[in-house]
Known about the structure:
The chain is an alpha+beta fold.
Amino acid sequence: MMALVGVSYGSLGRFMFAPIPQVPGIELLPGGVRVAHTTADTLLFSSPVRDLRAKRIENGEAVFQGLDYVFSPGAVRYSPWRPGVELYFPLGLRFTMRTDLGPFLTWGEGSVGVDVPTAASRWHLLNFRDGQAPLMLVFDEPEQLMITGESGGWVLSTGRPFKGWVRILAPVGPKRVAANVSSLGMLAKEISPLAEELMRPMPTFVNFETRSDSGFITAIWNFDGVGAAIPSALMLCRAGGYDAKIQTGVTRSLLDLVEGPIAFSREPRIVVRFPARRIPIGDALVVGKFENRISSASGFDTPSVVELALSRLMGGRDALTLDAVATSLGEFRRALPTYSDEVTGKSSALPGNGNGADLLAAQALLQLSAGQGSEFLGQLNDRWDPWTWQILGERSDVRSRATGLYAVGAALVGDTAMRARGAMAHAASSAEFVRQDYLKRRGLAPGDERVIQPLKELRQSLFGDMTVAPNRADFVSALSSPVRVVGGLNVSVEQVGDLYLLSWEHRAGDQSSLSLVTEFPVEVEARDNVSSIVPDVFLAETRLKVVPKGPGVCRVALRLPGWARGLPEVVEAPRYSE
Length: 578
């Protein structure tokens, strides 16, 4: 039986266990900032960033504040709705660079070398002569910049005393750009559309809404203005096989960043329609007996925990399977560590590097399937990333595995917002499937990360178009049985003509009654050891409470309307795969 769990947009995500949180494309160090690449040179601060503490973390955005020093940032602002990171300089802006050759500065109308000031501009590119990837600086007001100094000690500063925010990003990712007049001119022309978007006032996130209809979830991000960046997973997931569609206006893809193509909303909201099949609450009633029985499963082996969880999603499982579920959950819970996060003041079942997130996601799926709450899924919610829509982790295999399993678990929850979070995680997994090819084709130096796609066929069924029948549609259709058992009782079903005979054993001290939930009115007739059948109507559901007379086997006969879909035949749960 699946439990309900509530969720809003955003999480602690990349801010947990992070003295200096990072964003895609940029590496922010205590002593400086650079493109996130091993060979990139660093723009050094005059004084290291000290005592950086979280002042606000809300809806995926955050402000971290430290101590004020001359020519150094005293605060950092993060938002998934704009690329890069914002630094606040309270007492002037100055960077030092230790390169041998003097860098270039480029803006919309030109480029200059050392000892020559730029024209006042809202944006500037810093290019190194050895052809490194450029950095982009975006200001709230036009600023004049100049590079002075000598080999190994170049200084970048503003033409007037500066106090305010500056956004720093890697506009072409780690792609190397030749430092000559022709290349810099072409780069400025290429960057200009992005610069126009970044010079708009950054929209403030207002709220997140979700709506569910037949086979789809509509997610709506509302802002107080236009210009929010489109999440990178949305820009790649369709190439990876997930047909999530943006319903509102967006710009064309302006540039290719490491995290994905960058585009912006043309409306004060982003509306996305995600294919997502709804799995009703409760255990699915299916006709027949299971052949494959899981009598034991280690609570610390991800594949076996996942297989046990999927098996538990249907009614009619034997006592050995139910005992294995309880044993696996129990041994995992007893060994579950607690890590205190000094940054956010919260505790977590995962360390800062995210190791173990895949096993936690498997146990969350098992906990949900057993109807024992959503505690583990809530722990994963804290580590979900609004930038990438993934479960965060340093190891790519753990990150990919955890994200895919999290998507399956979230799909089984009754709350629409949580199901939308699952759809986003599936979009992230689909985007990861093609990301290495995207990086290679764009000349962005793909890494050697192993791409893992856990339960890919099952996820394609859960998040697929209902008019298409993927390989695992049979299992998902069985999960969507029109009659459900709430409360975890082990009920077997036999079909006799147009009747379904339901039987279960009632022991002294067991749950006092059988609770059935159906999508439509049904006829139920007492057969053996049944004291009463109490009907109830709750919203669009029909609920039946079947009370036994006493210990022993109880039986009732169930008849569905002639127009209704019958109970599905038993389908074995899919094996774990990646």
